[in-house]
Write a structure and sequence with these properties.
Layout (H helix, E strand, L loop, with lengths): L2 H8 L6 E7 L2 E7 L3 E6 L4 E7 L26 E2 L23 E8 L5 E7 L3 H6 L4 E9 L3 E9 L5 E3 L1 E3 L2 E3 L7 E3 L5 E4 L5 E4 L10 E6 L4 E6 L4 E8 L3 E6 L1 H8 L10 E8 L5 E3 L4 E12 L1
Antiparallel strand pairs: 1-2, 2-3, 3-4, 5-11, 6-7, 7-8, 8-9, 9-22, 10-21, 11-20, 12-20, 13-17, 14-15, 14-16, 16-19, 17-18, 18-22, 19-20
The structure holds 6-O-phosphono-beta-D-tagatofuranose.
The site of 6-O-phosphono-beta-D-tagatofuranose (TA6) has 11 residues, from strand 19 and strand 20.
């Protein structure tokens, strides 16, 4: 029996789930709740879309996204784990870790008493992943879909030695116009400006966009907002277990080089990523579990 048929059979009673293939062997899970709809790729336990009823999509997915085993999806909520950015010592290792490009299993899915739907995923650690990550560990991605979207990464050190843990929920948000949005809540934070030679600067006021923007904010407090005057809404982002926030828009030239943003897709997206990166990388002691979560909610601007 195929993996798709196995999933359909196992979750046949879950009337809030349906399964399909976006491409051969590339399984997507569609979730319908009383509050919103969402879709999640099994590869990477990758939330691709989330749209509350009465709202435009909140999570952006490129119209030119590629759905192929081992290829990261442009958009959604990529899981960057167990490192963020380039590997500390191995240049040949994939940027942002391997979690987003390996298969994951849907280990459970259920409806909460309040009508939200919760799905729990675990990765299938193949030989390549184990070779890059020699630390005994478990990781779960727990996605809760309702009037809000919540994504939580839980990592447990099951070994006898501590290890460094870098991670990010590399979330792409749908906006009306990158030239007009502002990000509030990061004022006063130190950030690494990756388009200015990784110089450390201090954020003054809100973040606005006039060109390629790639910043790692450090020691962030866990709450910021994307103020969007075009879509007349604010997307509130609250997080737990995270001390870094990355803000990214590639702008036209870099987006064109990446080739999977579609026609001016970069004008309609901004990444605000909940993370632990650079100075904020975690050292996870044996037996310890670290949880990092992000919650997204739309309020009228
Ligand atoms: O989070 C920002 C960033 O690190 C940028 O530097 C850029 O590389 C972006 O991630 C996209 O990375 P990806 O591997 O998904 O193309």
């Amino acid at each position: 029996m195929s993996e798709l048929d196995t999933l359909k059979r196992r979750f046949a009673s879950a009337d809030f789930l349906s399964f399909s293939e976006k491409a051969p062997g590339f399984i997507a899970i569609d979730v319908k709740t009383a509050f919103s709809t969402a879709s999640i790729a099994l590869q990477g336990a990758h939330v691709m879309t989330w749209q509350p009823k009465g709202q435009k999509p909140v999570i952006w997915l490129s119209k030119a996204a590629k759905f192929a085993p081992g290829k990261s999806i442009r958009g959604g909520v990529p899981v960057c784990w167990p490192w963020f950015g380039p590997h500390a010592t191995e240049a040949a290792y994939p940027g942002h870790g391997f979690a987003r490009t390996i298969p994951w299993l849907l280990v459970d899915a259920w409806k909460l008493p309040d009508g939200r739907v919760r799905l729990e995923f675990e990765p299938v650690m193949n030989d390549a992943a184990c070779a890059m990550w020699p630390h005994p560990s478990l990781v779960k991605n727990i996605v809760t879909i309702g009037q809000e979207l919540e994504v939580e990464l839980a990592t447990t050190n099951t070994g006898q030695a501590p290890f460094p843990l870098g991670q990010a929920l590399h979330t792409y948000f749908e906006i009306g116009d990158i030239n007009k949005v502002e990000i509030a809540g990061l004022a006063g934070c130190t950030y690494i400006d990756k388009v200015a030679g990784s110089k450390r600067k201090k954020q003054k006021g809100t973040v606005t966009f006039t060109g390629e923007t790639d910043r790692v904010y450090l020691g962030t407090t866990g709450c910021c907002g994307i103020v969007d005057p075009v879509l007349k809404r604010t997307i509130l982002i609250t997080s737990t277990g995270s001390r870094s926030t990355i803000v990214w828009n590639p702008w036209q030239e870099k987006a064109a080089k990446m080739g999977d943003f579609g026609n001016k897709g970069e004008d309609r997206m901004v990444c605000v990523e909940t993370a632990n990166a650079v100075d904020d990388v975690i050292t996870l002691a044996p037996g310890e579990t670290h949880r990092m979560s992000a919650q997204y909610r739309v309020i009228k601007a």
